[in-house]
Amino acid sequence: MTTDAEVRTWINQVWTNNFEDIQLAMNPGKPNGGYWSTLLLIFCSIDFFGTILSGEGKHETRNAIKFIKKYFSIQNPRYEKIGGLLYAIFRHGLVHTARPKKFTINSQEFFHVVGKDTDLISTNDDSYFIWKKEHDGDDQIYCHLIPKLSYPSHKRSKESSGILVFPISLPQLFHDYKKAVHCYLKDLETDANLRGNARKIYVKIREPTRFTNLDGYVNEYNPLKNSNVKNRDIDISEFYDFSLTE
Question: What is the pTM of this model?
Answer without folding.
Answer: 0.87
